[in-house]
């Protein structure tokens, strides 16, 4: 895999699974290639269709092959996982860009906990 810079734009979410018993979720997204270095969006209150339009930059190393997206519902005491998705970086390297909805499958992939609209641009170093 090539090394370079990966620009990631978390555009929006749609139909995020509601984790709160009262009201809607307070979602945010953690983005990472390596678990030791995570970046995250701001938390948006009371929505299951959030719009972030937030930009992040990652350095991609030759052995990196997947980017992960974990969507959480922020609660006072803790966080509840809404869903996780991932994209193979090969999909970005082939065209230099990626613009699509990433599914957030439920455990075992039997249902869907929503979708995340992600745009990525790769610049080789």
From TrEMBL:
<dbReference type="InterPro" id="IPR035892">
    <property type="entry name" value="C2_domain_sf"/>
</dbReference>
<dbReference type="InterPro" id="IPR000008">
    <property type="entry name" value="C2_dom"/>
</dbReference>
<dbReference type="Pfam" id="PF00168">
    <property type="entry name" value="C2"/>
</dbReference>
<dbReference type="InterPro" id="IPR045050">
    <property type="entry name" value="Synaptotagmin_plant"/>
</dbReference>
<dbReference type="GO" id="GO:0008289">
    <property type="term" value="F:lipid binding"/>
</dbReference>
<protein>
    <recommendedName>
        <fullName>C2 domain-containing protein</fullName>
    </recommendedName>
</protein>
<dbReference type="GO" id="GO:0005783">
    <property type="term" value="C:endoplasmic reticulum"/>
</dbReference>
<feature type="domain" description="C2">
    <location>
        <begin position="1"/>
        <end position="102"/>
    </location>
</feature>
């Amino acid at each position: 895999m090539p090394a370079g810079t990966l620009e990631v734009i978390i555009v929006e979410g749609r139909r995020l699974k509601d984790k709160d018993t009262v009201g809607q979720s307070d979602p945010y997204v953690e983005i990472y290639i390596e678990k030791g270095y995570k970046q995250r969006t701001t938390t948006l209150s009371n929505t299951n269709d959030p719009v972030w339009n937030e930009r992040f930059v990652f350095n991609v190393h030759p052995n990196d092959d997947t980017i992960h997206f974990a969507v959480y519902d922020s609660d006072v005491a803790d966080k509840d996982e809404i869903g996780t998705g991932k994209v193979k970086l090969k999909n970005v390297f082939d065209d230099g860009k990626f613009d699509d909805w990433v599914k957030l499958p439920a455990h075992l992939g039997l249902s869907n906990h929503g979708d995340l609209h992600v745009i990525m641009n790769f610049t080789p170093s």
